Amino acid sequence: MNTLDEQWRVRNAAATTLGLIEDQMRRAVRAASVEDLVALIEAFSPARSTGTEWTRTFEPLIERLWSWCDDATMAALADVFRARGMPWMGVTNALSPEHGVHIRGDLRHPAGARLPAFTLV
Description:
Layout: H1 4-31, H2 34-42, H3 52-68, H4 71-82, H5 89-94, H6 97-106
């Protein structure tokens, strides 16, 4: 059976790993083309991902995109999904400038934190 100190070490290792992965993902998103980001978002097609899993993983992705991408990239993504019509309306709404203002306004950046306090998956 694990002791409390072993559990604490595992927790700290997991937190460090998550921080490193967030940094790596941020760099990858910033280096990605609009087409690359479209392909990533396509994995969240409501037709492919139903129920709570879609919301549980999609919302944190959108939060990160609004934090890491510039307005021009986000507008280009919104245009792509808007052109796809109603099946993609949830994605289009998440990429709207109004939603971006809301997300960027709600992101907390605790003192001493490397990254904003994102929604956890």
